[in-house]
Amino acid sequence: MGHKFISKRYWTDQSTAMGAVDELAKLYDDTIDLSLGDPDIITHKSIMDKAFADGYAGHTRYTDFRGDPELREEIAKFYKEEYDVNVEDEEVFIIAGGCVGMYLILESILNDGDEVIMQSPYFVPYVQQIELARGVPIELATLEEENFQVNPDRLKSLITPKTRAVIINTPNNPTGNCQSVETMKELAKIAIEHDLIIIADDIYTAYSFSEPFVPFMSIEGMRERTITINSASKDFAMTGWRIGAIVAPAEIIKIIQQVNENVVFTAPSISQRAYMYALRDRKTLQPPMIEEYKKRVMYGASRVNDIKNMSTLQPMGTLYLWINVKQTGLSCEEVSDLILKEAHVVTIAGTAFGKSGAGYIRICCTVGVDKLKLAFDRIEKMGIFN
Question: Which of the chain's ends, N or C, has fewer CB atoms near its CB within 10 Å?
Fold first, then answer.
């Protein structure tokens, strides 16, 4: 039963699995926490030194309502230099992190009752973000036997007169899958045919291991109907700075700005300066970090596939391993719980990421190979994996 001073919308528990893992990690003194995708590598010193110097120089006030003009310019340069996509200044909006960005987008484009199709397994907050904007989340299952590609026929079967947008996250959290260019072109045809918006959640652009990342907005016909979220959080190990960007048609950016003025007003000024320096120095700063996480993910995948009753596809991107545990005969919640109790390793059950996550667990490779080795050595000794 809810409290009389709390909105009845929240009288039923809406906490997420991600919100619960902090307490789980404290249960044992020797816990290895592989639950949350928070990079363990600290933001590079050069980014901090330059940003803090700007703070001392006076960059501590509100910025322009769409974001620091120098950062907006750097975002546009990034898309031109990396992907040969021309982005105009009025198409860029600076956000206080990807989660806020997603809410601002949904609040700006959804009418009450509009449906948003989510590529599933999905990033946990999507459901409530859509509902906060008075939309209706619709789950679009992707399957391991299809390499987690979005199936065009399955997508079309979910489209109704109320469908407004489709969220595509590639490289994907939690599966580590990347949508192929061929798949993206098929999705683009469907979006154009049904007059839909694609919300491209591009949080892991730097971590596309198998093929170079391709932004959805660069697909033919999608420039005017794609809204892109980008972020410094994972690409530059800057989760705590809460800074990112939206790229969208100027008309949508105007509304996003209006909504944001009532939510955040402007993104943190020093964080904006830090993001700017990160983008400028990306060719130097990113390669060692990308190589380290790729090494961890590939090592983790090799260990998983050597353990009985566990398997994972060859990682294509991100910091995650999406592990099939169906052969244990237990639910993914039971497997995750046993791994915590017997191996003292924190994972997240796949159902936290949607119905199609049943039978899987997610592991984040946010510790070094030595600690990953210790975690898998413990897991390998468990009865359900022997």
Answer: N
